[in-house]
Design a protein that fits this description.
This protein has 304 residues and is of the alpha+beta class. It has helices spanning 3-6, 9-23, 65-68, 125-137, 223-244; strands at residues 27-28, 32-37, 46-51, 88-91, 95-99, 102-103, 109-113, 146-153, 165-171, 200-202, 210-213, 254-259, 263-269, 273-275, 296-298. Strands 4-5-7-9-8-12-13-11-10 form a 9-stranded antiparallel β-sheet. A two-stranded parallel ribbon has the order 1-6. Strands 2-3 form a two-stranded antiparallel ribbon. It is globular and about 60 Å long. The mean pLDDT is 88. Keywords: Nucleotidyltransferase, Transferase. Residues 8-188 form the Ap4A phosphorylase 1/2 N-terminal domain. Its EC number is 2.7.7.53.
Amino acid sequence: MTAAKLQHIPQLVRQQYAAAIEAGDAFFFESDVRIVRGQNVQRPVPWQIRIVPALLKKPKAPVSAEEEARPKQNQVDVFAPPYVPNLLVKELDDFTVLLNKYCVLPRHYLLVTRDFVSQEKPPSPNMLALVYSLIKSHTPSSDGAELLGFFNCGPNSGASQPHCHFQLVELMPSENATKAVPIEHMLDTQSAPDEDKEEILGLAVPWRHFVARLEPPSDPDKLENYFGKRFSHLLEAMFSLAMEKNDENKGRPNFNVLLTRHFMHLIPRRNETFDMKEAGWEEYGPGGHPPKYTGTLSVNALGT
């Protein structure tokens, strides 16, 4: 995929997003963001907790005759044709760029395979290279903003659609933060002179989190091979540790992939949700008074 084919995508995303919101083909939900920083750690991460109560009330199916006549997504596979015109950004050779219909962050868009590929399969080297090219071609809407790509592989990873898709959103640095992607406060953008650039890094967090530093070749024809190798290094690290820890094999692996300008992250997943009761949180124990409709947290992969 040549850079020329991608250079207009940021502008097309902005144009289509504005048109889709105005026409009612896409919906944006306001959210309240709270910043929580780790305590007693060398590099505290400014975690962003985003509260979106409006998602409990997604728009219902249209009822008026005018709304019934509007273009609709494919009811069997929402990432397959026919596309809602305002949600279609661009059709590429093997992929299609679509807007996400329900947005918590503005201009949330997707790279989906033209033909059906299961979301339970890892992203292909071609897809990784293309997403990275989209990230590199992104025009930030404000200083410090950065495009993040994320891929939820498997039902325990937060994946909600079976058709293969990579998601892209623009993140803004929180107040007094230096990086837009919170978890990357734990990483140095520049490698040390004596650092093994092929090494897979493990972050000091309570879950398994593998990171590959990215220094891709300038030749776009070599990107696919480069990302295939770097991703295989991440998978090898994940499987090696699983064997070392004698993890039970329960079918296909589930994981999240985060892709930024400087790093590729791989986070293995065992469960799609976090149960606050099982974790022993006081509010959910005897005598506690937990808020209504809470107790189970669905964990997605925005890296925030």
